[in-house]
Amino acid sequence: MCSLEKRGTLFILTLTGADSDDQHRLGPQVIASLLSTLSRIAAEAIPGSVLITTAHGRYYSTGFDLIWARKAESGAAAANRLQSMVNSLKPVAAALMSLPMPTIAALNGHAAAAGFLLAICHDYVLMRSDVGVLYMPEVDLGLPLPDYFAAMFRSKIRSPTVMREVVMSGVKVKAAEGVRMGIVDSAHDSAESVVEASMRLAEKLSRRKWVGNVYADIRKSLYPDACAVLDLPLKPLLVSKI
């Protein structure tokens, strides 16, 4: 599941997992909780709002709940469970890409597969350097890449070499490497310091008091291919009178 804290104009969304899941796997309940929380945040947004997402422990999220999928009665049922998670996470990615405020992923630890996708849907990615990797294991697991995953990674990772290493080779990227690759904005030496740095960045962004809908429209205009796959329409340019 997830929790939401509000400090002035800053929203802090924390992945808490379901039951005793310390890896914050994205099962149906967690995905539904994320979507409803993001809807609430969008509804409460005002100029100066900023979202930070983080999690407890050594994991940001290790992706879809494959354990739950494999508990199905048959292989076909397991595949259906996995497909349902793929389908239900797509609106979460769309919600992050259309959220009317700057967004910051404060990675407290490992972000893998759908957890990695969740991170790069944010405007800024900050990561701890003592623990944690970014990892797309689909090539190792023998799983195809969903279309909106591919679109988001193409949009956020512009280097073909980095894309090949991350998506086609399944390399595990630590924070310093992520900064060098242009995936991570900054690296910090502990979970506490990455959250503190995210708070400082959020406060700096909040002072700009940007109009949320305009900010969201500009974001979407930067990533038209991803937004098309996410079914997010781009608004026509309206020039106001001077």
UniProtKB/TrEMBL annotation:
Q: Work out whether the entry's keyword set contains Isomerase.
A: yes
Keywords, comma-separated and alphabetical = Isomerase, Lipid metabolism
Q: In which pathway does it act?
A: Lipid metabolism; fatty acid beta-oxidation
Q: Which domain of life is it from?
A: Eukaryota
Listed under catalytic activity are: a (3E)-enoyl-CoA = a 4-saturated (2E)-enoyl-CoA; a (3Z)-enoyl-CoA = a 4-saturated (2E)-enoyl-CoA
Quote the CDD domains the UniProt record gives. Answer: crotonase-like
Please provide an example of a Pfam family that matches this protein in its UniProt record: ECH_1
Q: Which GO terms describe its biological process?
A: fatty acid beta-oxidation
The EC designation for this entry is 5.3.3.8
Q: Which EC class is the enzyme in?
A: isomerase
Q: Name one GO cellular component term.
A: peroxisome
UniProt GO MF annotations: delta(3)-delta(2)-enoyl-CoA isomerase activity
Q: Which family does it belong to?
A: Belongs to the enoyl-CoA hydratase/isomerase family.
Please identify the protein, giving its name as recorded: Delta(3)-Delta(2)-enoyl-CoA isomerase
